Amino acid sequence: MLTHDTMVEGVHWLPSQDMADVAFKLVAVNLSDLAAKGAEPLGVLLGYMLGEDDARFVGGLAEALDAFRVPLLGGDTVSGGPACAFGLTAIGRATHRPVPSRGGARPGHGLWLSGPVGAAMLGFEALRDGTEADSGAYRRPRPLLAEGQALAPLVSAIMDVSDGLLLDTARIAQASGMTIDIDVALVPIAVPEERRAEALRWGDDYQLLFTLPAGSKPPVPAHRIGTVLPRGVAPLLLDGAPPAPDDRLGYSHGA
């Protein structure tokens, strides 16, 4: 099983960030994709652009590889200029077959979320504004590898929340040919209540978003936040109503 993510300066991290954190996050977000397949990481391949803070990047990379017990198998280095970009390919082994996908949700299944959203948004703002608030959720997310492996035999659909809860829920609904109705008040958030709408759209939280058959309970801590319905007028409903046509549900790479 293979997955690849690229991170670009000014898009995925602030130019002023510690490159050790950038390296750590690059590993973590790729492993989060494996977590959403219930996979066990076997190693990574790095595409690295040489820059001014190579030592800090290498230090953060070593921290991440040690933290998640993943070896660096190889890769390539290139020279370049601003903006800087890095790519990483993660290799994993499926722990359950069939490997879970986004496309198995069925009417009556519940929609579940492994934890709160919004912490990464607050972390980004703390870094951007130079405050003393905790920025760890944005700088060094944690892939939920053990949780993904525990869920793999049970879920009907699963993915990680990288581009925003609403957008990623819509992706599960579209892949499954269903409509998913989110009960907005049930979504756990890590922000003040008045910022709930932002937290549901911001992304970068890397929680696991999954569906389970009716009556099933997840083997890991999680919150039921919605229900899968037969396909209706829209793939996503919020409290029974489709979002406005101009509602930006999350981060779109093509926007």
List the helices and strands and how they pair.
Elements: E1 2-8, H1 19-35, E2 39-49, H2 54-67, E3 72-78, E4 85-94, E5 110-113, H3 119-129, H4 136-139, H5 145-151, E6 157-160, H6 165-176, E7 178-182, H7 196-202, E8 208-212, E9 223-230, E10 236-238
Parallel strand pairs: 2-3, 7-10
Antiparallel strand pairs: 1-4, 2-4, 5-8, 5-9, 6-8, 7-9
Helix pairs in contact: 1-2, 1-5
Low-confidence stretches: none
**Alpha plus pi helix count:** 7
DSSP, total strands? 10
Instruction: Tell me the span between the first and last alpha carbons.
Output: 29 Å
Relevant CATH superfamily of the largest domain:
PurM-like C-terminal domain
Strand order across the biggest sheet?
6-8-5-9-7-10
Task: Record keyword descriptors for this entry.
about 260 residues, alpha+beta, 60s Ribosomal Protein L30, Chain: A, Phosphoribosyl-aminoimidazole Synthetase, Chain A, domain 2, six-stranded mixed β-sheet, four-stranded mixed β-sheet, 7 helices, about 30% helix
